[in-house]
Design goal:
Blueprint: H1 13-34, E1 40-45, H2 60-70, E2 80-87, H3 90-106, E3 114-120, H4 123-134, E4 141-146, H5 156-163, E5 168-174, H6 176-182, H7 189-196, H8 212-227, E6 231-239, E7 244-251, H9 254-264, E8 273-276, H10 295-306, E9 310-311, H11 312-322, H12 327-339, E10 343-345, E11 357-360
Parallel strand pairs: 1-2, 1-4, 2-3, 4-5
Antiparallel strand pairs: 5-7, 6-7, 6-8, 9-11, 10-11
Helix pairs in contact: 1-2, 1-9, 2-3, 11-12
């Protein structure tokens, strides 16, 4: 989808699916923050937009506010929730203010424990200074960085700042075709270096066409790890019009990654969106649904076990951190592999427990059939 020029524009299916993911994740993130010992926590958007689409569908800032306002009673005395919204265009920022006011009116006014801060400016220059003034460094912080085009619009410094916060998390979204395109142009080199934190990504030009995207995705994930994040997951969405959107989530907490994966898998085929793992060039597109297509995960787990035996808990975490799947999906695959005898477990049971060790079955080669004895 081309970068929109108007104040508002039509809502495409993969953006609608992304909004559902954000909403479902915030339904977990918000109670966790409110139930902790934190006095403040912050939700931020670096490319907030106008807050509404042509068909009156809510934008992601309004979607987030709806989650917070429906659960405003979760905030305890002395706690405060900050919402930071940054938008470069003045016309869109004014529309965003109107949409936020409408949402507050819908819930009877602005709660005293919830503050919305609007900033006109570029995400690259406005987000970090505003955040530093707005909230204590050690408070939880979740930023949605939804830049048009490639991730070159989002310097790694922003992700590094989030990674240095104990509760810092980011969801970065971009169109993957731009990721490949700017890797092959010298004009995008400096922006790419700022995005990746080094020039390692430039080696993408030497990769086969089929592998360019995977190479760049791996480079970006490694950049997030070097920035200080412990976990990073990525996947692609493709709608019926063949528009693509790439999402990368980074966190320092395995629980955060688990909740984001749960949110991702609540997007179903009714939204007209299919998914794939950008790190697996051979993977077909599939829907996230109640009975998912698990053959790519089965292949990945068997490849992992080729390296040697492993604990079920380690293999479940591998699925969570290194594939588009959830840890429970790994449990389903391992159970099936035990049932058909492809793997064995340390307990001999057919239902794998997290502490069990499993390994590939070493079957003896089938001997050739005996030749019949000669009749004479």
């Amino acid at each position: 989808m081309a970068t929109p020029k108007d104040t508002v524009w039509p809502l495409d299916p993969h953006t609608q699916a992304k909004h559902l993911i954000i909403s479902e994740y915030l339904k977990a993130w918000y109670p966790i923050c409110a139930g902790g010992q934190f006095k403040e926590f912050t939700y931020a958007e670096g490319f907030a937009g106008p807050g509404v689409y042509v068909g009156e569908e809510p934008g992601s800032p309004v979607v987030a506010l709806d989650v917070f306002l429906r659960r405003r009673e979760l905030l305890r005395p002395g706690q405060h929730l900050n919402v930071l919204l940054i938008e470069e265009r003045g016309d869109r920022l004014e529309e965003l203010r109107r949409q936020v006011d409408r949402k507050f009116d819908e819930y009877g006014g602005r709660p005293s424990q919830l503050t919305v801060t609007f900033r006109k400016g570029e995400c690259t220059t406005a987000l970090l200074p505003t955040l530093q003034k707005l909230t204590p460094r050690r408070s939880p912080f979740f930023a949605v960085l939804d830049g048009w085009g490639g991730p070159d619009a989002i310097p790694l410094d922003i992700a590094r700042s989030a990674a240095n916060r104990p509760g810092g998390e980011v969801l970065v979204t971009f169109q993957p075709q731009h990721l490949v395109r700017f890797a092959t142009t010298e004009n995008g080199a400096q922006a790419g270096d700022r995005c990746f934190g080094s020039d390692d990504w430039r080696a993408a030009v030497d990769q086969p066409k089929k592998m360019k995207k995977k190479f760049l995705v791996d480079c970006y994930r490694n950049s997030l790890f070097k920035a200080g994040f412990r976990y990073a997951a990525s996947f692609e969405m493709r709608d019926e019009k063949k528009n693509e959107l790439h999402l990368v989530f980074a966190s320092n907490h395995l629980k955060g990654l688990t909740k984001m994966k749960e949110a991702m898998w609540k997007v179903d085929k009714q939204h007209g969106v299919r998914f794939r793992d950008p790190r697996d060039p051979d993977q077909l597109e599939f829907y996230f649904e109640e009975k998912p297509e698990l053959s790519p995960l089965r292949r990945a787990l068997l490849n992992k076990l080729e390296e040697g035996p492993g604990e079920v808990s380690e293999l479940r975490e591998f699925a969570l951190c290194e594939t588009v799947y959830r840890d429970v999906h790994a449990g389903m695959v391992l159970k099936d592999l035990l049932k058909v005898g492809t793997i064995e477990s340390s307990t001999g049971k057919r239902v794998p427990r997290k502490q069990d060790r499993v390994w590939l079955t070493k079957k003896e080669p089938t001997p050739p059939p005996l030749s019949p004895e000669p009749l004479f």
